[in-house]
Amino acid sequence: MIELGVNIDHVATLRQARRTWEPDPVWAAVEAHLGGADGITVHLREDRRHINDEDVRKLRELTQIKLNLEMAATDEMLGIATRIRPEMAMFVPEGRQEITTEGGLDVLANEAELTSAVARLADAGIMVSVFIDAIPEQIDAAARIGAKVCEVHTGPYAHMFHHAGRDAESPAVLAEIARIRAAGEQIQSLGMRFNAGHALNYYNVQPIARLPGIRELHIGHSIVSRAIFSGIREAVSEMKRLMREAAAGAGQGG
Q: What's the Cα-to-Cα distance from 216 to each of 58, 96, 205, 225, 227, rounded to whole Å?
């Protein structure tokens, strides 16, 4: 059954705007859990622009659902992950100037480094995921380095969906969906889990949620944005309803 991982980075972004103690990302995680979230995702960046080390520690100790730690494959982050031991760690590209993650990780160009990093986390009992574009060569490389999960970057799909006037049946959107579907099939054929995320929202999530074999969607900004008006529990609950509705319809041939 498809699951929802809620990214709460932007709760911390709001807190850091005033350099104060609220809103508390841990409180947001609990509210997301009560709304039906299956997991919590946070990105501990090198510059600590939103989530910080103490947030990760408290999330590990106080939340009752799985924690997915997004991170660069650096010695510092590997050390933090092996101490904290989240259920899953996801390697992502990271740039100081980017507003959010831009594009998938280039696994192919960094195989040796990533193979060592994956092994180090696996030895600590941590499931390793990689955030990649829907490119066959990157998926093959992910399998070679020992990743157990591939999260397919849905940003190009989401942007095309918007530019096409939210028309899920436009040829350009259908082409992006087909790319993600093919990536998912390849991921599963190589024995890895098929996850997806980035720029998904309440309007574009269902075509992705109904793809065959998809295990988890990781969604943050859209949920946190809606939560300003409706609260986190309601925002999470509505997103999960849309996902489950789409997945159930796909399973029935809808």
A: 23, 27, 12, 20, 21
**Per-residue model confidence as pLDDT tens for the chain (254 residues):** 899 999 999 999 999 999 999 999 999 999 999 999 999 999 999 999 999 999 999 999 999 999 999 999 999 999 999 999 999 999 999 865 555 556 899 999 999 999 999 999 999 999 999 999 999 999 999 999 999 999 999 999 999 999 999 999 999 999 999 999 999 999 999 999 999 999 999 999 999 999 999 999 999 999 999 999 999 999 999 999 999 999 998 875 44
198 is a catalytic site residue? yes
Pick the CATH number of 3-251 from 3.40.640.10, 3.20.20.70, 2.40.40.20, 3.30.360.10: 3.20.20.70
- Catalytic member of 31, 198, 216, 218: 198
DSSP 8-state symbol, 74? -
112, 159, 183, 214 from 242: Cα distances, Å? 40, 19, 23, 15
Task: Break the chain into its structural domains and give their ranges.
Answer: 3-251
Q: What is the C-alpha to C-alpha distance for residues 71 and 92, in angstroms, rounded to an integer?
A: 6
Looking at residue 40, what DSSP letter applies? E
Residue of 10, 33, 43, 153 marked catalytic: 43
Annotated catalytic residue within 31, 70, 151, 216: 70
70 is catalytic: yes
